[in-house]
Amino acid sequence: MGRAFEIRRGAKEKRWDKMSKLFPKLATAITMAAKEGGDDPESNAKLRGAIATAKAENMPKDNISKAIERATAKDTASFTEVNYEGKGPHGVLLWVECATDNNTRTFSKIRTIFNKSGGSLLNSGGLEFMFTRKAVVAFKKTEGLDVDEVELALIDHGLEELDAEGDEVVAYGEFTSFGSLSKACYDLELEVTTARLERIANNSAEFSEAQVEEIVEMIDKLEDDPDVQSVFTNIA
Question: Does the N-terminal or the C-terminal CB of the chain have fewer CB atoms within 10 Å?
Fold first, then answer.
């Protein structure tokens, strides 16, 4: 998962360099999580993860608090999670997760991006068996951190794999263990930077550097859209 993770992380840093685009996405994720499971991060793992991601991106505390408060506000738009599955340039598989208050608008925009990029949308469920939903928790590889010790501590909480490449450690587990795995990371006082559910391709595909650049260009367009929360691919 190493190269694919680096591509996703590098692409995200490039795409989300403008806070005017990033913060609204993070706020929406926080509001939706609070609406779904309550406004207490201690008992709401999804909210806890959304807050951790926002903090890692330097989102101000006031913005985070306001996003949580909006979950109970009467005039807050009702957002729903919508997934789109399709093929992009060179046959790459793409799973697009959106949060929208207008399904018709979002579908039209996503379809246009696919069509103009030489790809096409598939029927819902078309990639269901090509991707597996996983709990993913990333934390800083701080000085003195014993990765082996952390790995042993997390196994009882649903850990399947630990990737310690680079300056971050990434823990992967079954999606059903998200609450337990993320809570264990906080209990160990690890510096969590991301805690969320991701779609991991069951079989990755190799692409040339030129092809990857073309694919990333399409992903850039998708993630520039305010309704798009995440894009997952089968790039090796």
Answer: C
| pTM of the predicted model as reported, rounded to 2 decimal places | 0.84
Query: Phi first, then psi: what are they for 83, rounded to 5°?
Result: -110, 145
The one-letter amino acid at 233: T
DSSP, res 4: H
What is the topology classification, in CATH, of domain 131-201? Alpha-Beta Plaits (3.30.70)
Quote the CATH superfamily of domain 80-129+202-233.
Answer: YebC, transcriptional regulation domain (3.30.70.980)
Q: In b/e form, how buried is each residue of 108-125, taking b as 16+ CB within 10 angstroms?
A: ebbeebbeebebebeeee
Residue from 118, 93, 125, 86 nearest 233 by CA: 93
Q: Classify 2-72 by CATH class.
A: mainly alpha
Q: How many CA atoms lie within 13 A of 116 on its CB side?
A: 11
**Which tens digits make up the pLDDT trace of 180-210?**
999 999 999 999 999 999 999 999 999 999 9
